[in-house]
Model the fold of this input.
Amino acid sequence: MATYYQLFIINRNGGLVYSKSLAPTAPALSTNDSLRLGSTFHGLHAIAQQIAPIVSGGIERLETETFILQCFQTLTGVKFVVTAAPGTPDLDALLRGIYEVYSDYVLKNPFYEVDMPIRCDLFHRFLDKQIERHRSLSTNKRRSL
Done:
């Protein structure tokens, strides 16, 4: 079963604009912890981009024994980061789906100011649907194997 732990959306300046715990087993993070993680990842991503021996887009994936961290960076510099259990498939597809929901319900919202925290009810609703849809697709793929 696909187990997702946390979702972070980081703006192009390194500010955390959205975070969400995706599982009851996810570590409980305070608001300050989430902000610190977002800005730290942004800095590490930028450093990795600069010191890579070849042209690089920065950190795209980290795998450890206890979790996977996957990052999708848009052309405008917004980063979508998810943490998941080891062996969770198709995290890039999940992040691209979340980006579509973000584009449709945040960026097209006339009341949303870019780089500000996301507080859009439709985004929250459709984000949950996207995550559940992806979770069920991943589960069905594993069963068919």
Q: What stands out?
A: DSSP finds three helices and five strands in the chain. The mean pLDDT is 92.
